[in-house]
Design goal:
alpha+beta; 21% helix; single chain; 25% strand
């Protein structure tokens, strides 16, 4: 599968990144090893992208593997959790009243008690 991203967001040769379609380019996860990207996306969803040829760096056309959708509906990009963290998002609650970012283990426990969606933002392994 081919996909287009801004040319300056194409990962360096030999590396990958997870791309979330609903997020703007400046809020996408950092470049990471391809193994880490595929393992993470297989658990959490997203699109793993990599340079398909030297032209990728001029055109932004990359190769991609889709691992499933991720819903960031209603979440302002500036309220996403920091890389490597999770955040529970409660639909219908104003952004400034949402629970803070936390460990993914704590977010899962919070979700079991209070509901909501667990948002995850992967960290680079580089």
């Amino acid at each position: 599968m081919n996909f287009h991203v801004p040319p300056d967001r194409v990962p360096r040769e030999g590396l990958c990144r997870i791309w979330y379609r609903p997020l703007p380019p400046d809020r996408q996860p950092a470049t990471m090893s391809c193994g880490h990207a595929h393992r993470t996306a297989s658990r959490h969803g997203g699109l793993v992208i990599w340079a398909s040829s030297p032209r990728s760096f001029q055109t932004g056309e990359v190769a991609a593997t889709e691992y499933g959708p991720v819903s960031f509906d209603g979440v302002p990009p500036d309220r996403l959790p920091p890389p490597g963290s999770c955040r529970v998002w409660l639909d219908g609650v104003p952004p400034d009243r949402q629970p803070p970012p936390m460990s993914c283990q704590d977010a899962s426990a919070y979700q079991r008690r209070h509901g909501g969606r667990v948002l995850f933002m992967p960290a680079s392994d580089l």
